[in-house]
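Deliverable D5.2: sample structural annotation.
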Amino acid sequence: MRAFNVLFAPLLALAAIPLVQGGPLAYALCQTGCNTVVVACYAGAGLVFGTVVAAPAAPAAALACNIALGTCSATCATVALLAPTP
């Protein structure tokens, strides 16, 4: 009985702790990360985020940054926003 207490009591205690997997705060943090990366992407291309018109005449680097932002934002919505919260 003592061996059971030593080996499994800590595991039972950890199992009782509720898991938090995501929610609005996690989504906001994730989106902040995405926006920080896209601003850096634009700056690396010599552009300023928010000033380039998304049109066929936009520089290829801006379009690539926008695609990366869209992918990152979609991932945030899938992982952080739609994850269950306690």
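Annotation notes: Residues 22-81 form one domain. Residues 60-81 form the longest helix (22 residues).
The annotation will be released with the project's public dataset once the embargo ends.
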